[in-house]
Write a structure and sequence with these properties.
Blueprint: H1 2-22, H2 32-39, E1 45-46, H3 56-66, H4 78-90, H5 101-110, H6 117-133, H7 136-146, E2 148-150, E3 153-154, H8 156-164, H9 173-181, H10 196-212, H11 216-222
Parallel strand pairs: 1-3
Antiparallel strand pairs: 2-3
Helix pairs in contact: 3-9, 3-10, 3-11, 5-6, 5-7, 9-10
């Protein structure tokens, strides 16, 4: 029995490792989050595009809004995690997250939504693996294609078409900032109709974009894959 269990575990490890490597080159057909959106009746509007077909403003905006240390960390922002743990301990009725873009990709692509310790442990594993196998440029590309950016809207191409009636390649600085400003909760904080929160936060996002844009490591990521 133990031998059978060991073989099953080895097979599962090999299969998930092969899947991680495969997604280094192609996008996932569908994720559990997207499937959940369909089952909840929200649909799943999504069009996968390459980085070459996404405005550099979009990558810059999500880094500015969600994870300004993205070019520098190994998948985890330890200081932010420590601050979040202290905050959650002081105020158990509220929950503050500290997920990096890499962690969000690991959760969005490989896992389900939720806050269980099992899911969190798997998130750590998949974050480590995509940092190791994919690298930053692929991680940001997958994020821009898979992140929920509105009710039933996944990825920046679908969001751009829905909110601004043009492709992600044509996103202006302001438009990219509006999409990124909604990311903490894109179902609650809407781009259209424009919620007060998104309107206010987009101004902050644009200021952060101005601060980060000249960083060589940020430039290497936002201009990745462009000809």
């Amino acid at each position: 029995m133990l031998r059978i269990i060991r073989k099953i575990l080895i097979a599962l490890f090999v299969l998930q490792l092969a899947y991680i490597v495969l997604l280094r080159f192609v996008g996932p057909h569908i994720t559990l989050t997207q499937l959940g959106s369909i089952l909840e009746g929200n649909g799943c509007k999504r069009t996968h595009v390459s980085m070459n077909a996404i405005s550099p403003h979009a990558a810059l905006a999500v880094i500015a809004a969600e994870d300004q240390l993205f070019p520098d960390h190994n998948g985890f922002d330890i200081k932010s995690i420590q601050k979040a743990l202290k905050y959650n301990k002081r105020k158990p009725g509220r929950v503050r997250g500290a997920s990096t873009i890499s962690q969000q990709v690991a959760k969005n692509v490989f896992l389900w939504q939720g806050r269980s310790w099992i899911r969190k442990g798997l998130e750590v594993y998949f974050t480590f693996m995509i940092e190791l196998i994919w690298g930053k440029k692929r991680i940001i590309e997958v994020y821009l294609n898979e992140a929920e950016m509105g009710k039933g809207i996944f990825g920046v191409e679908a969001a751009s078409q829905r909110y601004f009636k043009h492709s992600a390649a044509k996103l202006s600085r302001r438009e990219a900032a509006l999409i990124a400003a909604a990311l903490p909760n894109p179902v609650r904080y809407t781009v259209k109709p424009l919620s007060p929160y998104v309107s206010r936060r987009s101004e902050w996002v644009m200021r952060q974009m101005n601060n980060l844009e000249s960083d060589p490591d940020v430039q290497a990521i936002i201009y990745a894959g462009r000809r």
